[in-house]
Every structure is written in C-alpha cells, then in structure tokens.
Write the structure tokens for this entry.
Amino acid sequence: MKRYNHMFTIAYSLESSRIDGTDIPDIEHADALRARIREALAIGFDEAVGCPDDTYEIEETVQASNRPLTAADAHAWGNDGRGRWYSSSSGRIELAITLEDAEAASHPGPCDKDVAELARVPYVADQLAEIDAATLSAELEQCAAWDAEELADHAHNIQRILWLACGDISELEASGEYDELDERAKEPGAGK
C-alpha cells in the first residue's frame, strides 16, 4: 500500500516594534504557538491548517521514525501509563520516554549529569543507538544553538537531543497539553 508524507503549516501572529520581528522573545513565540494549537484542537486541524503545503510518496524503505513499536517503546509507557512521545520538528527523530524520566532530566540548573544518566537507561539507550548521526546533526542544526564544530560530535548530539526531548515532554505536561491531546484522541472520528 502506498504511503504519503504531508507537510502542513500552522501559523500564528504577533506584534512587535521592529519590522523584522527580532524583538519578540522566544517565550512569546512559544505561547502564541501553544494558543494556536489549542485553537486547532478546538476547531479541528482540517479547518485550522487546511490542505498540505507539500506531499511526497514515501519510499519502500522504512525510516527509523516510522518503525513499529518495540519492547523498549512499550516499557517507556510504564505501569502507570505516564509515558510520552517526543518528535523532533521534522518528525525524523522520535523517542518514547516516561514522564518521570523526562522530568528527572529537565529541571532548573545544570541537567548534564541527569541527561547522561538517562542516556544509559536501557530502553532509552536502545532508542538513541538507532539515531543516524547525519540525521541528528541536521535536526540539531535547525535549532541554531550549536555551531558546525559542535554538531560534528555525535556523542554530544545524542545528549542534546535527549535534553531537548525531556524539556519538550516536561513543558507539554506542565502546560496540560498532553491532557488536551488525550481528550481529543478519545473523540469520535479521532485518528481518521
């Protein structure tokens, strides 16, 4: 059966004093995007974003992010069902991490030791081992937080993506957005 990858754009607007918008703090971007996502959940993504901006047929080879669930993924959900998925902005990297583990590696102050410890936990280490170095470097380059020399170090890139994943998971949990997504998924017709 043919499969297709679709790119959608979700937009938001902000006001600022500069013509190029560079005076808008990152947190305002994040807040506006979260508000737009809540609106899209309320009215439906078909209505909020419309048709795909681009579509291509997926090749026969299965990408790592489209792999079937493994025992490691199932473990990530934990006995209390508190596991969470992280997906990078391009969707090329996905990780399943328990909420407890994500919060342990994302907190005020230095997180380096906690992230390194989490990277050694078997269900996390197995997922991190599957990440292609070139894909990871390209993904992190989009963040514009590290230079080319820094992105050449795959071991540090693994730590970076895990830190980003834990931060995203913890932030989404704190904002209540996982609860909204869970409720939306229970609605009739969800997942079609």
About this structure: Confidence is low (pLDDT under 50) at residues 60-69. The CA atoms of residues 40 and 149 lie 39 Å apart. The beta strands are 4-7, 54-57, 83-87, 94-98.
